Amino acid sequence: MKILVCISKTPDTTAKIAFTDNNTKFAEAGVQFILNPYDEWYALVRAIELKEADTSTILHLINVGGADADPIIRKALALGGDEAFRVNSDSRDSFYIASQIAEIAKQNNYDLIFTGKETIDYNGSSVGGMVAELLNLPYISLATKFTLAGTSCTLHREIEGGEEIDEVSLPVVVSCQKGVAEQRIPNMRGIMSARTKPLKVTEPVNADTLTSIDSFELPPPKAGVKLVPADKPEELVRLLHEEAKVF
Amino acid sequence: MSVLIFLDQSDGHVKKNSLEAACYGAKVAELLNTTAEGIILGTINDPASLGKYGLKKIHLVKNESLNNFDDAVFTEVIADAVKKTDAKVIIFSNNFNGKAIAPRLSAKLKAGLVSGALALPELSNGFVVKKNVFSGKAFANVSIKTEIKIISLNANAYKITEGNETAEVSELNVDIPPSKVKVKEVNKIVGEVPLAEAEIVVSGGRGLKGPENWGIVTDLAKALGAATACSRPVSDSDWRPHHEHVGQTGLTIAPNLYIAIGISGAIQHLAGVNRSKKIVVINKDPEAPFFKAADYGIVGDAFEVVPKITEAVKKLKGI
Ligand SMILES: Cc1cc2nc3c(=O)[nH]c(=O)nc-3n(C[C@H](O)[C@H](O)[C@H](O)COP(=O)(O)OP(=O)(O)OC[C@H]3O[C@@H](n4cnc5c(N)ncnc54)[C@H](O)[C@@H]3O)c2cc1C
Ligand SMILES: Nc1ncnc2c1ncn2[C@@H]1O[C@H](COP(=O)(O)O)[C@@H](O)[C@H]1O
Questions:
Q1: Tell me, what's the pLDDT at A148?
Q2: What's domain B2-171's architecture?
Q3: What is the reported pLDDT for B194?
Q4: What is the pLDDT at residue A222?
């Protein structure tokens, strides 16, 4: 069994969001970068569990990014995983990233490809579906549960007002969210062994970019909260009805 | 050329978020001087009536197998329809199925995708679509550079308006590839307003102390015709079902009104709700961070305040 987990680097959840260069670039100064939470907690941990259940499993990680992504790749290797690929590119276009991942996947014939639900910076929720299409594989998006039985798997996915249970034969691409696994913390042995695990840097293949970000904006500041006294709840209801007009 | 809108259906009805996409698509078509056409996979009641959302034509791909969702099959079918209708802009709702198909179609057609669009495209300088980034803390203006363009529209980002036209309905003959995904079960929670589609959401946090106290939340939600939600520790403790969890690790919502009861307003919670148009916070702690993100607030004990709000709503609505 061969598994590929796609991991990305994102600003920490609590990072201050600001822009430079006439609002065209994210201001990275002073920002701490982390392994994208969905990739770490759900995609990677579920893959590690599968490897623990069947130790012959080969677990690869991939990141499309610059050398500044190496620390988060090492962290992912410390959690688990046998080796990592970094495709050396700073592109942010989902199609370009997916094309690079698909290229590595074609060379290695994975049974399972896991991604996170979305990157918490650009919130595309797109790379997984694109990889699946480029490889002509089935794709289960936003899985909340994944179980393997031989060469097929059962997945739960969220739908409007409920859930769907699907059965698919491998190989398959899955985007993972809450429910698939529980967050783990790397242990000392993992951290030590991660230092010597292979991190292979490859150059990107030619691929198109289909979109580009022209500029960023911050939301207008809130006007401030209008407080209503606790003994006048009917006043709140009046404001919501007459001023905010929400019902 | 045309603007093609994918109308996601369930049990013969087009989902609410797809109706928003239809109205949005009709406006995009108007801006581009062309027509808006809808495509429906599976079986549907009264497709001609969808003309009232501004759609001139409805293309039906009627096949029992399409009542089961498979993003690969849906992508093939829609790609074929794109060719047959000469669509240059394709619009999805950024709902669960939209998130599964739109990226696939983008890769298949090499058509640039903006997922989670918030506004109409800006056409004065190319084709630029505004979307949320950094979990609602900023916006990006994204330029689509390809001839065919795909937009998936965020829930509740565009208002549904109804006219009185009817659409021309025709069946589209396309090959339906075999599915590799077997849908074994579809479990729906009946009788509740689905959180992802709700215009008003009443949400409770750890301040409510325990599941036995949720009556004040559900009573208010019922009076308002709202969906219910909760913070993460609440669903983690199984006080409420997991699908109600909103925030960074849960569902992202953008209702017209979000009422937060006994929730402190941690940044990870806000990430899931800060796109709500109006936010009301009820918390006994005047220093609770949520008040900084709120439009209206009451500093007070939820157990005293909330039932009175419910009474006032009922009185106003005459129920
Ligand atoms: C990486 C990460 C991801 C996370 N993802 C999420 C997420 O997706 N969603 C999420 O919600 N959280 C998430 N969290 C947790 C988040 O940081 C907070 O811990 C959580 O939101 C707190 O929940 P709460 O507001 O219900 O509880 P608390 O923080 O305990 O707040 C309870 C509030 O209730 C008030 N209160 C108490 N009694 C009363 C009363 N009688 N009347 C009125 N008010 C009262 C208190 O003043 C307090 O403000 C995440 C955390 C991390 C680290
Ligand atoms: N640069 C990247 N390198 C590797 N994987 C990525 C990269 N960007 C996104 N992914 C994967 O694709 C998922 C969805 O990302 P996105 O489409 O950007 O929201 C992420 O959770 C990752 O698993």
A1: 97
A2: 3-Layer(aba) Sandwich (3.40)
A3: 86
A4: 84
Q: How far apart are CA B187 and CA A164, in angstroms?
A: 6
Q: Residue length, chain A? A: 247
- Which residues, 6 or more positions from A139, have their beta carbon under 8 angstroms from its beta carbon? A128, A129, A132, A133, A172, A173, A174, A175, B71, B72, B100, B104
What residues 291-310 of chain B have any CB closer than 8 A to a CB of chain A? Answer: 291-301, 304-305, 308-309
How far apart are the CA of B120 and the nearest CA of chain A, in angstroms? 16
Residues of A in contact with B108 (CB under 8 A): 133
User: ipTM, 2 decimals?
Assistant: 0.95
Which parts of chain A have pLDDT scores under 50? Answer: none
Instruction: Kindly list the distances between the CA atom of residue A48 and the CA atoms of A42, A44, A105, A180, B152, in Å, as whole numbers in the listed order.
Output: 10, 6, 19, 12, 33
**Which residues of chain B fall short of a pLDDT of 70?**
none
Judged by a CB distance cut-off of 8 A, whether residue A94 touches chain B is: yes
Domain boundaries, chain B: 2-171, 195-317
- Answer whether B73 touches A (CB < 8 Å): no
Is B72:A139 a contact under the CB 8 Å cutoff? Answer: yes
pLDDT of residue B161: 97
Q: How many CB atoms lie within 10 A of CB A144?
A: 18
Closest approach of B106 to chain A, Cα-based (Å): 7
Task: Give the pLDDT score at B18.
Answer: 97
- Given this model, what pLDDT does residue B297 score? 98
Decide which of 3.30.70.270, 3.40.50.1220, 3.30.43.10, 3.40.50.620 is the CATH code for B195-317. Answer: 3.40.50.1220
Given a contact cutoff of 8 angstroms between Cβ atoms, the answer to whether B17 and B8 are in contact is yes
User: Looking at beta carbons, which residues of chain A come within 8 Å of B134?
Assistant: 11, 17, 120-121, 123
Q: CB–CB of B296 and A158 under 8 A?
A: no
